[in-house]
Automatic annotation (TrEMBL):
SUPFAM superfamilies per UniProt: Nucleotide-diphospho-sugar transferases
Superkingdom assignment: Bacteria
UniProt keyword Transferase present: yes
Site-annotated residues for Positions MEP for the nucleophilic attack: 165, 223
Name of the encoding gene: ispD
Protein name: 2-C-methyl-D-erythritol 4-phosphate cytidylyltransferase
Annotated transmembrane regions: none
UniProt record similarity statement: Belongs to the IspD/TarI cytidylyltransferase family. IspD subfamily.
Species this chain originates from: Streptomyces spiramenti
Length: 242
């Protein structure tokens, strides 16, 4: 079978502040999305990338990618996205041809994921795992707070307890899946049968009761979310180019 990557890139990027949709913002001379698509193309097995564009601009995104310096050997398809990430991924999955049997789902916002991380996710799916997620240990101490609806806005938050971070992992993308398992998870969510509130695809697979495994993620696969992340991404790129 063939390995494809679905790249959800339809978000506004509200936390990055005002401006173009996050995937179209400049990062070191090229849009964030071009970096993310290039990272998928550099993986050994990926021969198709489905980009899920902001719903109002699939044509502009198609034209932008057609003129970007990307390897010609990898097919690139652009479809319009939906109102939330889960819907955008579902629309991307719907564009996959029959012969695809392994699917990566990769946030455009994780633009600088190294190819070796992508390859290790694909290899672990090919070795028989239905769902594979790159992850890193959590380095911050994490505390749980109480939900008190009567606490005045801006008042200090009371701590309930400290979570044992040895058992916690921060997950990244690309998440890799056996295609039929991911399709089942998304089908259930679309029909209201479970997984609707999941914040990642692997969470939807967990609700099917199928095993999800972790492989080592990479620091450079961090998600560009807030303005400081863009500063960090520029620095990572500059370090690569020297
Ligand atoms: N995404 C998407 N469709 C949506 C919302 C999000 O394809 N309706 C994508 C984003 O483009 C991004 C990925 O999902 O690549 C992860 O989402 P996030 O980092 O939250 O991006 P945004 O939703 O764009 O940012 P924000 O939440 O700050 O608005
Ligand atoms: Mg978001």
């Amino acid at each position: 079978g063939r390995t494809a990557a679905v790249v959800p890139a339809a978000g506004r990027g509200e936390r990055l502040g005002p401006g173009a949709p996050k995937a179209l913002r400049d990062l070191g001379g090229a849009p964030v999305l071009v970096h993310a698509v290039r990272a998928m193309c550099q993986a050994d097995e990926v021969s198709l990338v489905v980009v899920v564009a902001p719903p109002e601009s699939p044509d502009a995104v198609r034209a932008m990618l057609a003129s970007a310096p990307l390897p010609a050997a990898v097919e690139i398809v652009v479809v319009p996205g939906g109102a939330n990430r889960q819907e955008s991924v579902r629309l991307g999955l719907a564009a996959l041809p029959e012969e695809v049997d392994v699917v990566l789902v990769h946030d455009a916002a994780r633009a600088l994921v190294p190819a070796a991380t992508v390859d290790s996710v694909v290899a672990t799916v090919r070795a028989g795992a239905p769902a594979v997620v790159p992850a890193l240990p959590v380095t911050d101490t994490v505390k749980r707070v109480g939900r008190d609806p009567n606490r005045p806005a801006g008042a200090p938050e009371p701590v309930v307890d400290t979570v044992d971070r040895a058992d916690l992992r921060a997950v990244q993308t690309p998440q890799g899946f056996d295609r039929s398992v991911l399709a089942e998870a998304h089908g259930n969510a679309a029909e209201g049968l479970g997984g609707e509130g999941a914040t990642d695809c692997a969470g939807m697979v967990e609700r099917l009761g199928r095993p999800v495994v972790l492989v080592p993620g990479h620091e450079e696969a961090f998600k560009i979310t807030r303005p400081l992340d863009l500063v960090l991404a520029e620095a990572v790129l500059a370090r690569r180019e020297t």
